[in-house]
Amino acid sequence: MSMIKTPEQIALMRDAGRVVATTLAAVRAAAGVGVTLRELDTLAAETIATAGATPAFLNYHPRWASVPFPGVICTSVNDAVVHGIPDGYTLQDGDLLSVDCGAFLQGWCGDAAISFIVGTPDPVDQALIDATDAALARGIEAARIGNKMGDLAYAIGGAARRAGYGMLADHGGHGIGRTMHAEPPVPNDGRPGRGIKLTEGLVIAIEPMLILGRKDDYYHDDDEWTLRSANGRRAAHSEHTVAITADGPVILTLP
Ligand code: MG
Ligand code: MG
To answer: pLDDT tier at 64 (50, 70, 90 boundaries)?
Structure first.
């Protein structure tokens, strides 16, 4: 299937993206001390269903996973970078929670993630989140006709490295449309001037994943899904689905 979407298709993806943004906002508002990840997952399921959409992650089963993903959202706490399973864990004061959400509406997918502190923030954790959001913003800013994918990847990775953080450099974003994960890959680090040309109608998910400290190492949890930082330090993840248009980058996953 073509990677290029028409303006009409992008408008439909905007509707899907709005559902994702609304769900993330609801989860964030509910994510207080004493709330379990499973309760947040139930809230996400209800929010997506109320919008007439279907969750993209539930029972998602890529070839590399031995078991399908059991949740509606990914909830990654503290040293969990991405793909955390929403289980019975009860949120504690100061936890760093990353929430990733995908949903289909009318056959089109939206995908976005946010990171935030539950309760009282540690300034070090908040700075990590701010740097992750900033790296995402740099990537979005580079999602322009005439740039190459390497320019976008370098914008993300350069921002993260200069700020002094490690990152999951071998994980990144992706094309998105009628499937959640499509061509092309959107790396979180790269070299300017390399890779495919960014063209009008390309829709991509951009998603930096930053780790405290300068190390990139991570490992798979026993649950087969959660990726955790090898140094045990905290990590953050931010993501938007973005359309490359003649008017510049358009974020599709806003409320
Ligand atoms: Mg995502
Ligand atoms: Mg994604």
So the answer is: confident
Ligand nearest to the CA of 179: 2
Q: How far is the CA of 3 from the centre of ligand 1 (A)?
A: 18
Measured in Å, residue 100 CA sits from the centre of ligand 1 at 5
Q: Using a cut of 0.85, tell me whether the model's pTM lies above it.
A: yes
The answer, yes or no, to whether residue 1 has pLDDT greater than 80, is: no
Tokens 């399973």 belong to residue? 85
CA distance 46 to 117: 23
Domain 7-251: assigned CATH number:
3.90.230.10
- Residue ranges covered by each domain of the chain: 7-251
The tokens describing 57, both together, are: 């992650």
Q: How far apart are CA 120 and CA 1, in angstroms?
A: 46
pLDDT in tens, 71-102: 999 999 999 999 999 999 999 999 999 999 99
Ligand 1 centroid vs 239 CA: distance in angstroms?
Answer: 6
